[in-house]
Amino acid sequence: MGYLYKKFFTSENKKAYQLVMQNLNYDLKKAQRFCDKNRVIIFKNNVSKNLLNTLNIDEINLNDIEICKKNSVINGEFYLLVYECFSLDLKPIFENEDFAVFNKPSGVLSHPNGRNCEYSLNDEIWQKYGENANVAHRLDAATSGLILVAKNKIANKELKELFAKQEVYKEYLALVCGNIEYDFCVSVRLKNDEDLKNKMLVSKDGKISKSQFCVIKNYPKHTLLKAIPLTGRQHQLRLHLYYSGHKIAGDTLYGLSNEEARNILDKKIINIKELCGASRLCLHSARLKFTYKNQNYDFINNDIENEFLGAIK
């Protein structure tokens, strides 16, 4: 369901942050931060009060509302912008008291990317484990596969430190365009493309990145690779493979013009297969291996080849 405005009522003068604490069961700091994000509103006096108990963001006319700051005094009806989870009943493939591992489908965001987001993996996470649970690392929405979820704040901090220190071994599977006969390695510097948000560029003044690629299988016009990121830069594998002359099938950023990429991001182009060579990005998080609390974990999910082949047909 994503973000919705939910209606509440107070019969006495109270500050906005106090009402957030009272109705959402937030502590002081979290309630104040909620208000600072402009998530508390009231409707102006000349607007009809026969409003629904929940309102979508696109149903709100900004001229009809007043945004309440944390110390704004409210008496009567008010709305809070809250995230309502919508579950597709995605089950973890493993869980213990501290973390869970999910097999994220391609096309699913790891976390909400804005107020108009209707569904993300966080819907499943928050519904199952509460709002203190969070992804410990990120996968692009178009990338499928294993993703680690921390169930509480302490585990979240510890697991993120493992990724930051590069103490998590990761393997991906990628179906790329063209035939490759030998294993290879790519090491270049990357920086953000100032012309297109989220896209990266190879640049001498960027940050160092390195990946290793191993040939698994050749097809008539494609090659299945094992991809091992040795650093953790954004879009590292996608850009490294494009840079090497073998873009990932279904890539909507690399190998396209920025105008084409924007049209896909803006959903002006829905069917990407003709333009990108596949109906999805053929990149899959296949393995996560790490040590946590003196216990070794090794998760493998590499059953993706048939889905890749179906995407390019």
Mean pLDDT: 93
CATH architecture of the largest domain: 2-Layer Sandwich
| Main sheet characteristics | 11 strands, mixed
Helix coverage percent: 10-25%
First and last CA, distance:
33 Å
Computed CA radius of gyration, to the nearest angstrom: 23 Å
Could you say which overall geometry the principal axes of the C-alpha atoms support?
Answer: globular
Order of helices and strands: EHHEEEEEEHEEHEEEEEHHHEEH
CATH topology category name of the largest domain: Pseudouridine synthase
Using the coordinates above, name the CATH class of the largest domain.
Answer: Alpha Beta
Oligomer: single chain
Topology:
Elements: E1 2-15, H1 16-24, H2 28-36, E2 40-43, E3 54-56, E4 65-67, E5 73-84, E6 94-95, E7 99-104, H3 121-129, E8 134-135, E9 144-150, H4 153-164, E10 169-177, E11 184-192, E12 200-202, E13 207-218, E14 222-229, H5 236-243, H6 258-265, H7 273-276, E15 283-292, E16 295-300, H8 305-312
Parallel strand pairs: 9-15
Antiparallel strand pairs: 1-3, 1-5, 2-4, 2-5, 6-7, 7-9, 8-9, 10-14, 10-15, 11-12, 11-13, 13-14, 15-16
Helix pairs in contact: 1-2
